[in-house]
Amino acid sequence: MKEILLLKYGEIVLKGANKRYFEDMLLRQLRHKAKPHGDFEIYRSQSTIYVEPKDDFCDMDGMMAAASKVFGIVAICRAAVCEKNMESILATVKEYIPPHLAGKKTFKVESKRSDKAFPLDSIEISKAAGGALLSACPYMKVDVHNPDVTVRVEVREYAAYVHPGPVKGAGGMPVGSNGRGLLLLSGGIDSPVAGYMMAKRGMTMEAIHFESFPYTSEMARDKVLRLAQIVSEYNNDEMIVHVVSLTKVQEELVKHCDEDYFTLLLRRYMMAIADRVASKFYCGALVTGESLGQVASQTTEAIGVTDPVAAHPVFRPCIGLDKEDIVVTARKIGTFETSIEPYEDCCTVFTPRHPRTRPDLKKVLAQEQKLPFDELVEEALANMYRVDVTPEGYEVRQ
Ligand code: ATP
Ligand code: MG
Asked: Is residue 229 within 8 Å of residue 394, measured between CB atoms?
């Protein structure tokens, strides 16, 4: 029996004159995602995207999993395709639906008829389909108010479709519909989640990672790039990661500044460098995984002294989330297991014993002035290199 995926996009995508633009974006992304799963025809009609296998070699499970990572799709229906006549529809209902009723007691049928020339109206279609299904599954009961399964019959432009209801899509807005963001990506739990969350709001994500050889290891960097691989699946299957060394900055900080201020000063360098990189690569905002109060550098006051270094807006999608909530998302998107691998981060080398949690900007600036801030930023930028990441792997450029 021939199957198809019907993908529905959210109301937000339908807004005004942008509809076509969003749809084209989704079609491009889905066509790209479909490639490893076979030869599919992907097209739109009546505010639905159709993903239709062209032959029997297509992997529908794989395609379904791939489609569930495309932001902007709110629901995915895997349906059987049949001819637009009642005989064919009822035969399909009887054959295709029963396996989906395993362990269920009640159902109802809902029908939609966008082809108004079809001889039966939607109520008549539902009645007939319900009767056919009862004859195939006499142990089932109809419950129109609170059924275990709602079977759908959709009579559309080219064919009729029968399915046991939608599964949830990724939601959000298509990646690329809301500008570019530069994600400050560490090896922790929070920043990959922050990248995912902003990609979900339609931002194309690019990343910057700070390392500190030899205080941080090759393995620590590999872990971060593997996290980027996972996040890239939600970002049109690609992500550029700019890698910047903070070794010199950290060594200078240790030599010249008060220990209590190390982390705050380091974070100001990180923000300043990220801000410059964002300008260079046309990113409209910085994105971090900060969550209010989680560590000393994430108090309101600490964020207050690191934030002003950046000219770009800084998006912190995790700011109001509890760690537990962030972990739930990390598990859902598949980054958690990698994030908890025990490698060091540049923020965890030279950590002060008593970091300032309520820093005073004037004092921070007095510390900062002990070093040639701009010069160190320039030097770090001069040694930056790029890594191209896809879900399959990564390649270090120069
Ligand atoms: P995470 O779990 O994402 O590492 P965290 O709770 O450990 O976050 P911090 O280490 O204080 O918090 O970092 C706060 C944010 O600063 C991170 O979410 C990330 O956006 C950024 N950041 C920290 N370390 C790095 C790094 N080495 N490279 C790039 N960004 C970093
Ligand atoms: Mg961290």
From this structure: yes
Q: Is 154 in the pocket of ligand 1 (CB under 6 A)?
A: no
Residue nearest atom 22 in ligand 1 by C-alpha distance: 186
Q: What are phi and psi of 336, to 5 degrees?
A: -55, -50
**Which atom of ligand 1 lies closest to the CA of 263?**
11
List C-alpha distances in Å: 204 to 9, 283, 320, 329.
19, 9, 22, 19
Q: Is the CB of 161 under 6 A from ligand 1?
A: no
Distance (angstroms) between ligand 1 centre and the Cα of 286 equals: 13
The minimum-distance atom of ligand 1 relative to the CA of 183 is 20
Write out pLDDT tens, residues 11-66: 665 667 788 888 999 999 999 999 999 999 999 988 899 999 999 999 999 999 99
The length of the chain, given as a count of residues: 398
CA 281 – CA 275 distance, rounded (Å): 10
Q: How many CB atoms lie within 10 A of CB 158?
A: 12
288 CB near ligand 1 (under 6 Å): yes
Q: What is the pLDDT of residue 345?
A: 83
User: Whole-prediction pTM value?
Assistant: 0.92
Q: How far is the CA of 310 from the centre of ligand 1 (A)?
A: 16
Cα atoms in the 13 Å half-sphere on the side-chain side of 307: 13
113 C-alpha vs ligand 1 centroid, how far in Å? 52
* Residue 120: count of CB within 10 angstroms of its CB: 16
Count the Cβ atoms, other than its own, within 10 Å of residue 338: 17
Q: How far is the CA of 216 from the centre of ligand 1 (A)?
A: 14
Instruction: Tell me the longest C-alpha to C-alpha distance in the chain.
Output: 84
**Domains delineated in the chain:** 3-168 (3.30.2130.30), 180-397 (3.40.50.620)
